[in-house]
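User: I'm writing a tutorial on reading structure tokens. Could you give me a worked example: one chain, its sequence, then its tokens, then a sentence or two explaining what the tokens reveal?
Assistant: Sure. Here is the example chain.
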Amino acid sequence: MFGNLFGNSKSSALPEGWVELTSVEQAKEAIANSTEHPVLFFKHSTRCPISTMAYRRLETDAPELTSNVNLKYLDLIAYRDVSDWLANTLNVTHQSPQVILVQNKEVVHIATHSEINGAEIIEVIA
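And here are its predicted structure tokens:
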């Protein structure tokens, strides 16, 4: 019951084109590759209904997002070390839920909670 209410962290449940981020090495590679294609990190708490709401909003825009950015899904409960590394490396305050858009190895957009909006992310990179 609670898994359905709050969502889950299994990558098989992710929209097509999203990649589950499970290691610092994957995060480093994504940031390095942001010079070729922007990367969007979505930090999700599987225990938080607000985070699930933000996830559902992004899921709605998933087809358009995946054609414009590399989407990285981070279950920050399971991979808190990766979340902490991102916050420190990108010099952003940890929030949950949170999206961090990186282009050319620089943070170009951050949104949290109800401010997370796929259309706005697409506008930033357009």
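What the tokens reveal: The beta strands are 18-20, 39-44, 70-75, 98-103, 106-112. The radius of gyration is 13 Å.
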